[in-house]
Amino acid sequence: MTKNFLYSAPTGGGKTLVADLLAIRNLERNGRIIYLIPYIALIKQKARDLKKIFNDSNKVVVELYFGSKDTLNNDYDLAVCTIEQGTKIIQSILKKKSKNNRFYTIIIDEFHIFFTPERGLLLENMLIKTQPDVTNLSCQIIGMSATFPNLNEVAKWLNAATYQCSYRPIPLLEFITAKIFNEIANLNCVKERKQMLGDLFCNGVAFHHSGMTNDERILIVDFYADKTIKCLFCTTGLAAGMNLPAHRVFINGINLGKSRMNLLDYKQISGRAGRVGYSDFGEIFVLVSTSNDFERATKLLTDTKYNLELSSSYSQVNERNAFDRRA
């Protein structure tokens, strides 16, 4: 199958396995894989998994993000990268006047990023450049997400086949309860942070956020994965797509920074609870402190519509295609 393909299924529904099998098939035909992932933590995890898969082959796996050791100059068979780096790869291919003979499979994990204001527009522009009437690039687009608003509309735009499944292998129990704390600590000093992290770690507890060093974050993720850490306090950086299953997830309030949590955000976070092979069911506790927050949380738990729109109309897309052809 070389037609574009969009796949939506709940967490644990086998999306990653499907993408990996399609990637392996293309690599066996001397193709190349561009694996787009929006978060560096996810890139590192996915790159390590793929390097294990292809350890006994001559396939080269690189990871590309701001500050990574690998660069666009590296030869590769499979590039695991951010949307920004993936866009640069596509642009470098398009600059070549000669026909590119290698077939590319472009896998977009966490495709719901398409519906966010900034990176969504970047991803959309990149996808426009892969359209057959615009580019000399022979490719197949594979998009997957547990939360896929407007699936059929996007599929029509990309001329893609679709598969959508609502079955969740592990049932999820959802609760709303009163908030009993606001935060653990506000640590600006590296020495204080490491001291507290060490004290907590001795009791199987840790925290994870973007203010930590890459080495610290990698260690925390690894220790949680092998169950050395039993309880992990984290920001939403670990909420999207990370293979870090938990039996029980607590969501501290319904705000994400200065904005309100929407249904897409909630589904991504709650997807961490209950995974095949780890538990028979998962539990989500949404912690609220006011009656208004309780009402909003109730709506999150019962709503089924994302109410999101494509960031551009089909007429705008056609205009962009025409512009790209002229360029």
From TrEMBL:
Transmembrane portions of the chain: none
Domain Helicase C-terminal: 122-321
InterPro entries reported in the protein's UniProt record: DEAD/DEAH_box_helicase_dom, Hel308_SKI2-like, Helicase_ATP-bd, Helicase_C-like, P-loop_NTPase
Pfam families, per database record: DEAD, Helicase_C
GO MF term set: ATP binding; helicase activity; hydrolase activity; nucleic acid binding
Domain Helicase ATP-binding intervals: 1-166
Gene3D superfamilies assigned: P-loop containing nucleotide triphosphate hydrolases
Keywords associated with the record: ATP-binding, Helicase, Hydrolase, Nucleotide-binding
Signal peptide: none
Name the UniProt record assigns to this protein: DNA polymerase theta-like
